[in-house]
Amino acid sequence: MNESLIVADVLWHGDEIFEIQFERNGITFMPGDCLALFAEDGRESRPYSMASGCDESIVRFVIRRMNDGVVTPHLATRTPGDYVKCSPPFGWFKPGQCDGAPFVFIATGTGISPFLSYLRTYLDRPPVECLYGVRVLKDTVDIHWLKQQCHVKLCVSRETSTEYFQGRVTDLLEDMPLSKDHHYYLCGLDTMIDETTKWLEKSGVNISNIHRECFFNESYSA
Ligand SMILES: Cc1cc2nc3c(=O)[nH]c(=O)nc-3n(C[C@H](O)[C@H](O)[C@H](O)COP(=O)(O)OP(=O)(O)OC[C@H]3O[C@@H](n4cnc5c(N)ncnc54)[C@H](O)[C@@H]3O)c2cc1C
């Protein structure tokens, strides 16, 4: 059954990335779960991964605005008090749910969302490392908070950075904690997910320890 959420706030992280916050409205979910959020016409929808902790009083999403998109321009222009139609929670990606085994998060762009949800929910069970890739530094979401929660390696691909690694997350795979017993959670751009999966498998990690959620295809988002 579809319902609606009431917008509490819209915050911007840079020019293209925004965080839309809704009043909780009794929604229950696990880190990694999504809602489908609808366009103005109430017919077209897209899935979005929740970025909030499971016990927060608000439900947050971190979203890249696509100028010619159907849903994101609508969401980006909402104001507090507006209603947005949504689906019930759903999802198969379960970051950190690996029976106590050590795990690594690897995100590009808004692919950080399910990992934010995890870290906001399980404060005492961090990943051994979080690789986080953005195009430009101002696209980062809550980086100072993230760095307090776990060991974060931030990669900036499209501008010079003196503070952080300049390049793609896949340039840092060689330095990532590697073990057949670790689990790897990959979220964001398809090319990062494909390249990282191939590299992990070549390095001896079983595919059952590699968990993936693809948000974008490089050809769409270039
Ligand atoms: C499980 C899941 C979770 C997701 N979670 C998030 C999230 O938390 N945050 C987030 O930012 N995004 C997330 N996404 C992506 C999101 O669902 C939308 O795809 C994205 O926001 C674009 O929606 P839109 O309606 O604005 O754009 P669309 O109307 O879908 O178009 C986006 C762009 O792609 C182009 N395009 C679309 N289809 C094609 C095609 N077939 N061929 C070529 N070009 C095409 C359009 O021209 C446009 O430039 C998630 C996706 C999945 C599958």
Give an account of the 3D structure.
This protein is of the alpha/beta class. It has 2 domains: 3-86, Elongation Factor Tu (Ef-tu), domain 3 (Beta Barrel), CATH 2.40.30.10; 103-221, Nucleotide-binding domain of ferredoxin-NADP reductase (FNR) module (Rossmann fold). It contains 5 helices and 12 strands. It starts with a strand and ends with a helix. Flavin-adenine dinucleotide binds at residues 34, 46-49, 61-64, 66, 68-72, 110, 113, 213, 215, 220.
Concise summary:
This protein is of the alpha/beta class and 222 residues long. It has helices at residues 72-76, 113-121, 143-149, 190-202, 218-221, and strands at residues 3-13, 17-23, 34-38, 45-49, 58-64, 83-86, 103-108, 129-134, 152-156, 165-166, 183-189, 210-216.
Strand content: 25-35%
Structural class: alpha/beta
Give Rg in angstroms: 17 Å
User: What number of domains?
Assistant: 2
Question: CATH H-level name of the largest domain... which superfamily?
Answer: Nucleotide-binding domain of ferredoxin-NADP reductase (FNR) module
Keywords, please?
Rossmann fold; alpha/beta; Elongation Factor Tu (Ef-tu), domain 3; globular; six-stranded parallel β-sheet; 222 residues; binds flavin-adenine dinucleotide; four-stranded antiparallel β-sheet
Secondary structure blueprint with pairings:
Layout: E1 3-13, E2 17-23, E3 34-38, E4 45-49, E5 58-64, H1 72-76, E6 83-86, E7 103-108, H2 113-121, E8 129-134, H3 143-149, E9 152-156, E10 165-166, E11 183-189, H4 190-202, E12 210-216, H5 218-221
Parallel strand pairs: 7-8, 7-11, 8-9, 9-10, 11-12
Antiparallel strand pairs: 1-2, 1-6, 2-5, 3-4
Flavin-adenine dinucleotide (FAD) binds at residues 34, 46-49, 61-64, 66, 68-72, 110, 113, 213, 215, 220.
